[in-house]
């Protein structure tokens, strides 16, 4: 259930009129406030606006700055590419040097093993030769046990075997000395070569560092003197 209340038309009209009058009063107050706070006339001293340069000169300066900016960007890009390429080349050279050193060490190791095999072979050969000669010497009379007035074929064979053993020893010693000298010469040559490579790498590193420093100084000078390449008369 609900109750229907009939609206009071008189009360409604009074409320509407009061709202309208209040809004009109606010509008009038706002208009009066604007009139009271209206800014007065502006009095400025006449003066010449703009810079000392002409528009054509300003346009020319802007064009020069734009060209300079493009040149600097291009120069930075080229320097970056050069530095990257130099770093890659240095890395490649470093890897090649490492591989070369490994190959040289492997070659030295192979030569040392070959020398050791030769020495072992010579020792074994001399041992077998001495063993054979000792077998041949069995049964021959000793020089201090008895005096031989007339040397026979046995003493001649003993002398020849003794001379043969002495020649073998001398030949073995000579070959060992030659191998040692050859190994020493190879070691000295390899040391000299490594020293030359180290000096070359040091010189290349110093040259690269000097080039990078010069490039940095050039860029710094260009930043400190931005208009140095656009002096009057420059046609580059």
From TrEMBL:
Keyword Lipid metabolism belongs to the record: no
InterPro entries associated with the record: EPSTI1
Signal peptide feature range: none
UniProt entry keywords in alphabetical sequence: Coiled coil
Bias kind Basic and acidic residues: ranges: 167-211
Domain of life: Eukaryota
Coiled coil: 73-118
Region (Disordered): 146-236
Record's protein name: ESIP1 protein
Organism: Menura novaehollandiae
GN (gene name): Epsti1
């Amino acid at each position: 259930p609900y109750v229907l209340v009939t609206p009071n038309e008189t009360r409604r009209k009074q409320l509407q009129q009061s709202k309208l009058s209040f809004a009109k009063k606010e509008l009038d107050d706002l208009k009066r406030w604007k009139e009271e706070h209206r800014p007065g006339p502006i009095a400025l001293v006449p003066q010449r606006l703009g810079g000392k340069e002409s528009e054509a000169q300003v346009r020319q300066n802007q064009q020069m700055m734009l060209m300079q900016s493009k040149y600097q960007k291009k120069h930075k890009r080229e320097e970056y590419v050069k530095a990257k390429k130099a770093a890659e080349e240095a890395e490649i050279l470093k890897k090649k040097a490492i591989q070369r050193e490994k190959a040289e060490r492997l070659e030295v190791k192979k030569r040392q093993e070959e020398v050791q095999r030769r020495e072992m072979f010579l020792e074994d050969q001399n041992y077998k030769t001495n063993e054979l000669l000792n077998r041949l010497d069995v049964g021959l009379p000793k020089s201090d046990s008895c005096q031989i007035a007339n040397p026979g074929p046995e003493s001649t064979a003993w002398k020849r075997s003794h001379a043969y053993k002495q020649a073998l020893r001398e030949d073995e010693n000579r070959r060992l000395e030659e191998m040692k000298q050859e190994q020493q010469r190879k070691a000295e040559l390899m040391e000299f070569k490594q020293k030359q490579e180290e000096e070359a790498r040091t010189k290349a590193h110093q040259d690269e560092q000097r080039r990078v420093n010069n490039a940095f100084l050039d860029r710094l000078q260009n930043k400190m003197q931005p208009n140095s390449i656009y002096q009057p008369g420059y046609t580059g």
